[in-house]
Each structure stands twice: as structure tokens, then as C-alpha cells.
Design brief:
43% of the residues lie in helices and 8% in strands. Strands 1-3-2 form a 3-stranded parallel β-sheet, with helices on both faces. Helix 4 crosses helix 5.
Length: 159
């Protein structure tokens, strides 16, 4: 993706690991209609191969380890089922995404916020170094956070 907001048209030659799908659609995964709306509006028309394999397995509660090339939809492969499993009526943190860099945390958080924008009541926080720790603590105290995207150092600081 050239821009985090919308996937850009990719002019690179795509190999089979990006194009060889089973032909499923996101609606085949019985996703929340509000989440599905956000996914489709974001520009995803059908799941990539890594998403086709990952989403149903994660939704069934299986642990999963994936490896795929850049641009194959790995972030969506774990964020989509994670969002599906969050219950916004529960007032506690249900998911933690730990990423190695501030840039990746911000990118992941923006992606999640974009595809989940119709999931009313979902509270997400991105916490990384480079910001005031006090501000993050206040954000946690002000409202119940369902999903946290964090870098390891900031997570240790918060602990």
C-alpha cells in the first residue's frame, strides 16, 4: 500500500502467493455487518490467500503463525478476526497487538480504526514511545479500552 488510508492500485507483477485464492469472499466468514462494511469501504474486495487461511482459523480459536511477503494482507489477516471477536459491550481490554516499532504501531492502529469505524462503542488506543506516558495513562483511565496497539517499551512503561 502506498498510503495507509486506501490501498493503492498495485502495478507490480503479483505472484501466486498473492493471487491464488480459493475464491471466497469476506461475507463467507460470517463477519459482523458493521465490520464487513468497513472492510469493503476500505477497498478490500476479497480476501487474499493469507487472509483466507488465517481468518477462519483465528475465529475458531486456533493459534496461528503466518509468514507472507509484504503487501499480501497480513495485517488484515489478524486484525479482521480480532475485531470480530471483540465484544464492545464488555468494558475491559480484550486484545493486545504488540509491534516492534512506533511507525508500525501507528500504521496498524490507523488500519484498525478505518475498518472498524462502523463498530459503535469500540475503543482503541495506540501507545508508543515518543509521547507523554502520563497522556496514555489518562486515556486508559478516561474510558474502557477494548483493543491496545503498543510497542514493547511503552507496554513495559505502562506495566
Amino acid at each position: 500500500m502506498n498510503k495507509i488510508d486506501k490501498p493503492a492500485e498495485d502495478t507490480r507483477v503479483k505472484t501466486a502467493d498473492v493471487t491464488k485464492t480459493k475464491g471466497s469472499s469476506f461475507s463467507d466468514f460470517s463477519l459482523n455487518k458493521k465490520l464487513l462494511r468497513g472492510i469493503l469501504e476500505f477497498g478490500f474486495s476479497k480476501p487474499s490467500p493469507v487472509q483466507e487461511e488465517s481468518i477462519p482459523n483465528i475465529l475458531m480459536g486456533n493459534n496461528l503463525l503466518c509468514r507472507a511477503k509484504n503487501g499480501t494482507g497480513k495485517t488484515g489477516a489478524y486484525c479482521i478476526p480480532l475485531l470480530q471477536l471483540i465484544d464492545v459491550n464488555k468494558k475491559y481490554t480484550q486484545a493486545l497487538i504488540l509491534v516492534p516499532t512506533r511507525e508500525l504501531a501507528l500504521q496498524t492502529s490507523r488500519f484498525i480504526k478505518e475498518i472498524s469505524k462502523y463498530m459503535i462503542g469500540l475503543n482503541i488506543i495506540c501507545t508508543t514511545g515518543g509521547t507523554q506516558l502520563r497522556d496514555d495513562i489518562l486515556r486508559f483511565k478516561q474510558r474502557k479500552i477494548h483493543l491496545v496497539v503498543a510497542t514493547p517499551g511503552r507496554l513495559l512503561d505502562l506495566a
